[in-house]
């Protein structure tokens, strides 16, 4: 991690043993990381169209690897964890108010929590 950091790290008697053990290797790896990002910076920029085409192709190639139920579970876990913030934001948004999204999210959370 220190090899990827842009700041210099001072070692002292309280430094973790792992930092002390690998301190002499950090400059070597740091130069690799700097060269890597410099090489990326020199690459020609790609257009949004090319990026979108690449992402669409990757999605197509890996579509059989996507687990919808797992994705839904992860979304629910996130919504459940941040439910207050999400509901408050939806209650303040004009478009969300028109669609009653805060209420709908509350209903989903209630239904899912009573299932478990």
UniProtKB/TrEMBL annotation:
This is Plexin-A2. InterPro entries: Plexin (IPR031148), Plexin_cytoplasmic_RasGAP_dom (IPR013548), Rho_GTPase_activation_prot (IPR008936). Residues 1-86 form the Plexin cytoplasmic RasGAP domain. It comes from the Eukaryota. Coiled coil: none annotated. PANTHER family: PLEXIN, PLEXIN-A2. SUPFAM superfamilies: GTPase activation domain, GAP.
């Amino acid at each position: 991690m220190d090899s990827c950091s842009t700041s210099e790290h001072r070692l002292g008697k309280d430094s973790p043993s792992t930092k002390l053990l690998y301190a002499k290797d950090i400059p070597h790896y740091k130069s690799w990381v700097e060269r890597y990002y410099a090489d990326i910076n020199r690459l020609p920029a790609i257009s949004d169209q090319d990026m979108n085409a690449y992402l669409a192709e990757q999605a197509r190639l890996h579509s059989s690897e996507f687990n919808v139920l797992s994705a839904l579970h992860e979304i629910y876990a996130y919504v459940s964890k941040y439910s207050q913030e999400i509901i408050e934001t939806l209650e303040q948004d004009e478009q969300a108010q028109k669609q009653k999204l805060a209420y709908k999210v509350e209903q989903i959370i209630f239904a899912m929590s009573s299932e478990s």
